[in-house]
Design a protein that fits this description.
335 residues, single chain, alpha/beta, six-stranded parallel beta sheet, 7 helices, 19% helix, UDP N-Acetylglucosamine Acyltransferase, domain 1, Spore Coat Polysaccharide Biosynthesis Protein SpsA, Chain A, 2 domains, five-stranded mixed beta sheet
């Protein structure tokens, strides 16, 4: 199950117009990247909860057949938290082991090894963990013998962390987990279910994913980092173009492109434009004559006016940057 019901307020104002699962990462909604990631490990039946702008999500993802999977939607009129959403799908999962992931993730954590670890430990619940040098913005997990979870800290102040291993939001569960989630109640895995499993001394483990890549793109800083990691090859998404221009893009002969730049389908880049990477120019973006672009991300349909300069910015879908302005470090979106 992909957890996708939240409003993604940490990415405002960009996500006032675009629902969380459709946040684009180098030209593709991140939910698509996640579906392909799950499918690569043999998952062909995937549930996804929707709440904000659900019609846009369904129109983009459909029934999943275009990705080789079958999607089942949970429409939440009222959000019931991460665990509360999964609880509503109890009959869907039946008596099988299942995986839950957040829709904000870019990762190559090996799910086959994670599940094998879970089975070997005869676990009720297993969290995939990665190491971070700074953990004050994450849920910290303390493990003991054979990876059994012995403690938690939620966003500990610097210098007070009991561990440098953080919760990735990738979980493996047995059906017995539903006994720990009340029905029709707002309930959260990190704040309620997991601490209760720890107190009950349940078969609850943390899997060290080692050097696997993981980025939570749910914040502006991490969204930018994840995008740049793809552009420079630090992280590769299979079958995804990392940089370069789509053949359908129209680029004037004298346009100067330097560094890692991704240009989408139908983009129009007029004469005299200069683009320096790391930058993403989304599908249908139009950049008027003599504009200067550097280290910026443009979502689909954005426009940059004549002689404008845009640096270190993120520009939302269909947003029009006026002519001759100088923008540095801004996040711009239609509200």
């Amino acid at each position: 199950m992909i957890l996708a019901g939240g409003l993604s307020t940490r990415l405002y104002p960009l996500t006032r117009q675009v629902p969380k699962p459709l946040v684009p990462v180098v030209g593709e909604p991140n939910a698509v990247h996640l579906i392909q990631y799950l499918h690569a490990y043999g998952f062909d039946e995937i549930a996804i909860n929707v709440h904000y702008l659900p019609d846009a999500i369904l129109a983009t993802l459909g029934d999943g057949s275009q990705f080789g999977v079958k999607l089942t939607y949970l429409h939440e009129d009222v959000l019931l938290g991460s665990a509360g959403a999964v609880k509503q799908m109890e009959s869907y999962f039946g008596d099988e082991t299942f995986v839950v992931v957040g829709c904000d993730l870019l990762t190559d954590i090996p799910l086959d090894r994670l599940i094998a670890f879970h089975k070997m430990r005869e676990a009720l619940a297993t969290i995939a963990l990665v190491k971070r040098d700074e953990v004050d913005q994450y849920g910290v997990v303390v493990t003991g013998e054979k990876g059994k979870i012995v403690g938690f800290q939620e966003k500990p102040a610097k210098g007070t962390e009991a561990s440098t291993m953080v919760n990735t939001g990738i979980y493996v569960f047995e059906p017995g987990i539903f006994a720990h989630i009340p029905a029709a109640t707002f309930y959260d895995f990190g704040k309620q279910v997991f601490p209760e499993l720890r107190k009950a001394d349940a078969a609850f483990y943390g899997y060290d994913a080692g050097r696997a890549y993981w980025c939570d793109i749910g914040t502006l800083g991490e969204y930018r980092r994840g995008t740049e990691d793809i552009l420079d090859g630090t992280f590769a998404i299979p079958a995804t173009r990392a940089k370069g221009a789509d053949p359908s893009a129209s680029i004037a002969p004298d346009v100067e492109i330097e560094g890692d730049v991704w240009i989408g389908a139908g983009a129009v880049i007029e004469a005299g434009v200069r683009i320096a990477g790391p930058s993403v120019i989304g599908d249908g973006v139009r950049i008027d004559r003599n504009a200067r672009i550097s280290s910026s991300i443009f979502w689909d349909g954005a426009r940059v006016g004549l002689n404008a300069t845009v640096a270190n910015a993120i520009v939302g879908r269909d947003y029009a940057v006026p002519a001759a302005v100088n923008i540095d470090g801004a996040v711009l979106a239609n509200e």
